[in-house]
Amino acid sequence: MSQEEKPQILHATNHYLYYPDEKDVPAYLAYGFRPVFLLLAPYMIISMLLWGLVWSGAINIPFMDNVLVWHVYEMLFGILTIGALAFLSTGLPELFPGLIPLIGKRLKYVVLLWVAGRISFWLIDVTGVYLTALLNLLMLGWLIWFGRRAVLDKLQRHASLGYTLLALLIIEAWFFASMAGHASTPPIDILKIALGGHVVLILLALRRVNMEAVNELMEDKGIDDVYVSRPPLTNLAAFSVILFSVVEFLYPANSALGWIGLAVGAAILAVTNDYILKDKFILNQPYVIYLSLIFIMLGVGYALMGWAILAQDTHNISHFRHFITSGGIGLSYVMVMMIISWIHTGRHLTSNIYTHSMVAAVVVATLMRGSIPFFENYSDELYLYSSLIWTLPFIIYIKLFFRFLTAPRADGVKG
């Protein structure tokens, strides 16, 4: 039996005591992350391939009036809702004993709601803004309701996740109000605000993911130390992102925004100090490198945007913003999918040529996309090839993990 196939018993097993006694639940509906990742990987591939072909001029999508808004919305809110479903439905039952895991028919109906939201937004010119808004806001609203235990927790240990989702729900409602003509703010400007909210949510979520993944890794490696993600570093980074987003919305041409961008980059990069432990050196561990690259991509993106603003080169801000979207956010989804698919199917956290390639592809695609300002004569090619390379991690994910998602846990535990 290979390393990746060896069973693993997790410490966080509270949900097993409250697992529903539902009969004939297929493996792909046995826990929240399973159907999500089975859909998310191919959806990422299709969405990015279409975008690359459209933006490079290879094809045209006649039923979409504003392809840019479609692309940005889907890469933010479309992916957020299904990603949050996987994260919350997997993590909350372990953090709050007594919360019944979402499985079977209930899980299937929620996933179908997300699918309906995606179809409606792709065909928004046919289905209309109001139906599309209803389906998508209902999905995010349900997620907030499902995660209400975190907000209502007296200790407020994970309440920040709930508050951030609530803020994103308000921003999404604002976006649809603009699409329907009830708000004067251009939709793309609202989506820039939403990007800041997404980065904050990812920073908060990564603090939890790091705690589980890095400590699990050190235990497997026999490293006698404890990794602690320090809230002040994450909170400072989150505050700086919020400040940048607000100032960019109100005063996009103000040079002060450039200095704020540099400060945000520094604040996010500072979070990587958590990986420097007192007694043991772990910066040579593959998953530590993978996870640290998320903060590096996010930090570099904000710093480059700040530099472009100070250089009065606002035309290239959107290119540098892709270090945040394609790089930081894209890699965070890859890592969450990878980590959950190892650990929560009862296996050891494993690194190999496949995991190395998944991370490397995101980094290479981001560097290609972000380099367009320096190679404008090759912009069409860079748009297309970066999109193609960015899909590789999800193609590899299908090959490596789909067999885990469609089979019972390797350790025999329910879920």
From TrEMBL:
The keyword Metal-binding does not apply. Keywords: Membrane, Transmembrane, Transmembrane helix. This is NnrS family protein. The chain crosses the membrane at residues 36-55, 75-95, 130-147, 159-177, 189-206, 227-251, 257-276, 288-310, 322-341, 353-370, 382-402.
